[in-house]
Amino acid sequence: MVDMPDIPRVARLLADVARTRIVWALIDGSARPAGELAFHAGISAQSASAHLMKLVGGGLLAAEAQGRHRYFRIANAEVACMIESMAALASGMELGLPQCLPSTGSSTQAFMHARTCYDHLAGEIAVSVLASMIKARWLRRKDTELVATRLGAQQLRALGIDLDSAQGERRVFARPCADLTQRHPHLGGALGTHMLKLYIDQSWIERMPKSRLVSVTPKGNEMFRKLLALG
Length: 231
What we know:
A hairpin with an 8-residue loop joins strand 8 (175-177) and strand 9 (186-188). The radius of gyration is 18 Å and the shape is globular. It has 2 domains: 7-75, Winged helix-like DNA-binding domain superfamily/Winged helix DNA-binding domain (Arc Repressor Mutant, subunit A), CATH 1.10.10.10; 78-228, no CATH class. Mean pLDDT is 87; it is low at 93-99. The longest helix has 15 residues, at 77-91. The chain is α+β, with helices and mostly antiparallel strands and 231 residues long. A 3-stranded antiparallel sheet has the order 1-3-2. A two-stranded antiparallel sheet has the order 4-5. A two-stranded antiparallel ribbon has the order 6-7. The chain has helices spanning 7-15, 17-25, 34-41, 45-57, 77-91, 108-113, 124-135, 150-159, 163-168, 189-201, 218-228; strands at residues 32-33, 61-66, 69-74, 115-117, 120-122, 139-142, 145-148, 175-177, 186-188, 205-207, 214-216. GO terms for molecular function: cadmium ion sensor activity; DNA binding; DNA-binding transcription factor activity; lead ion binding.
């Protein structure tokens, strides 16, 4: 038999509705206690404990102790990207906006425009930025991933990206990540994380408290216009 990844193991973890609800409650990057996750899943605390053990053991969630309580979060960006991709596929991206979106406490329009996808930017702006970077030949596709061209490497460094650090991480450098609300992908991988850090550090965007939503600053509007003009 041909060796292959153990996809069925991951599929079984997410085949249970309660476990899916638990994971979806954490897609905003938050860390939450078992009791709160039990409420989101509509199950007892005992059942939630069993499900959380399976999700942690399967590598989808990570647990950390804070005082007398344990808090759970999505294990890493790769898991979060997989969950968003599955959500987009399940919703039928060709049909438009999925009917079930993470709770943000704000409008659907704002959620579609700009938000975080775990550790990188998502939404309309992020999709447009990736499209412009590919059209301007900063990035090119290589199988399912993206690599920086010589021009792209120069321009990304000039923008303020620590490219050596991004390329040296033990994860995919760059890849298209299915956007939950758009029909095209945004930028994921290590480069997507470094781009989000740039946006925040350089005050292009500001995070909204307890939300995945971000607001674009006046400086950000100007800088994003420049990036989108690349293509």
